[in-house]
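Incident log, entry 3
Record: Mercuric transport protein MerT (115 residues)
Problem: checksum mismatch between cached and fresh output.
Input:
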Amino acid sequence: MDQKESNLPMIGGIIAAIGAGVCCVGPLLLLLLGVSGSWIGNLTAFEPYRPLFIAFVVLLFGYSGWKIYRPVEECEPGTACAIPKKQQQRKAIFWLSAIVATILVTSNYWILLFA
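Fresh output:
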């Protein structure tokens, strides 16, 4: 599996996290940027789909974590998972994106502190 294919689950997880957080973080960010209007209230239309987005985030990040933390013996020689430096970079990117996804997914609970 090449580098692009192994990054797809993390990218998909971030996109799903944005979808899960758009109903809460989206209006706040738009207001902070000075954008206003009655149409901002329509962003709450994604609220019924929030559990599906969250499940998708967990599923994709679980798969990504499994791919990143699998034993090196399973890697083909010369691939990204067999190179220790690349493996460390991928782990750092995984955890950074997992933190961002967690912030977006949990925004429904802490956003009220800032609004």
